[in-house]
Amino acid sequence: MCKGMEYIGDTALIKLFYFNVFRQPTKAFVVPEDLSTFLSDLLLYHPGLDFLKETPPFQEKYRQCVIARIFYAVGKFVSPSQDKLTQNQFIRSNLVDRITFITDNPDINLELHYFSYEHFYVLYCKFWALDADHDFLISRADLSSYSNYALTPKILDRVFAGYGRRRRRPHMMSFDEFVWFMLAEEDKTTSSAIEYWFRCLDTDEDGVLSMYEMENFYEEQVERIQRQIQRQGGEGEHITFDNAYRQFCDIVNPKNPMAIKLSDLKRKSSVAYFLFDMLFNLNKMLDFDGKHPPNQQGSKWSQFARYEYDYMA
Fold first, then answer.
1. Residue 236's pLDDT is what?
2. Of 187, 157, 180, nearest to 170 (Cα)?
3. pLDDT digit string (tens) for 81-96?
4. pLDDT in tens, 229-262
5. Contacts from 291-299 at CB under 8 Å and sequence distance 24+?
6. First to last CA, the chain
7. Which long-range contacts (CB under 8 A, 24 or more apart) does 300-305 make?
8. Residue 108, pLDDT score
9. Beta strands 208-210 and 259-261: pairing type?
10. Residue 189 CB neighbours (<10 A)
């Protein structure tokens, strides 16, 4: 048995088998292209995707979406030309379990991690709405209108500079890159999302979020709060950085409040999203009531996708 596999037990051998089937014989890892053949077979034979046979362009976008979701959740943050799943990452992931699940279930939408068509549809429609010329590339200006202009200019600059997920084109975002962005934005409780936004906020790349960095991002929130108060006729509470940050520290209890580490946020992942929303998403910040989220079925992303799909349908 390979090193690092003992903790999983006998199922590691099954996962190792899949890993070796997917990867190219000359490579020690799986790259996005290695999953294309499997997904082509899935599109051809799975009854839950049978209706897509008459729309090859949609099949291709579905394939891109699934691959992006897999590498977002399982892969390593590297440049697009180096996206890969190592043997250890592959075996530690739930990918084989989810493949087994869709093999045994004719309803593809019951699989909520990677393969749901409904989830793909939500991601595709959100991208399509932003992509005014429908060339399957969106600009920073296009992305700025996401969720009714919810995000601050500074965080959009960092996203487009490639700190959340490095991009192929410096001034445009592709569909698979948008999938990473939207998954991170709509569910900030996952490890992948926390890492995505932490990279965007850590402007000096020293592995910690300093008070200076956080207050620098919050400045734009203050301006937006002030504009909102003015639109309401001067009524409303001005939320200072100190007040908002104190509330964050009460909830997350970081080891060093002057320097937030990635481990602090992952340790309290269920409420870590408050820091991110506080710094760059005004709508979600104002919606936060200071309470722990209720125990609801499914992830925050699954809940969001369910609501959006029902609304679109």
1. 62
2. 157
3. 568 899 999 999 999 9
4. 777 676 666 788 999 899 899 999 999 999 999 9
5. 298/112, 299/112, 299/187, 299/189, 299/190
6. 48
7. 300/186, 300/187, 300/188, 300/189, 300/273, 301/119, 301/183, 301/186, 301/187, 301/190, 302/112, 302/119, 304/186, 304/187, 305/116, 305/118, 305/119, 305/122, 305/186
8. 98
9. antiparallel
10. 18
By DSSP bridging, strand 85-86 and strand 259-261 are unpaired
**Residue 28 has which token pair?**
């020690």
Q: Are 155 and 217 in contact (CB under 8 A)?
A: yes
Amino acid in position 299: S
Residues of the chain under the 50 pLDDT cut: 1-9, 80
- Residue 161: the pLDDT is 93
pTM of the model: 0.91
DSSP the chain: --TT-TTT-THHHHHHHHHHHHS-TT-SEE-GGGGHHHHHHHHHH-GGGGGGGG-HHHHHHHHHHHHHHHHHHHS----GGG--EEHHHHHHSSHHHHHHHHHH-S-GGG-TTTT-HHHHHHHHHHHHHH-TT-SSEE-HHHHHTTTTT-B-HHHHHHHHTTSSS--SSTT-EEHHHHHHHHHHHH-TTSHHHHHHHHHHH-TT-SSEEEHHHHHHHHHHHHHHHHHHHHHTTS-S----HHHHHHHHHHHH--S-TTEEEHHHHHHTTTTTHHHHHHHHBHHHHHH--SSPPP--SS-HHHHHHHHHHHHH-
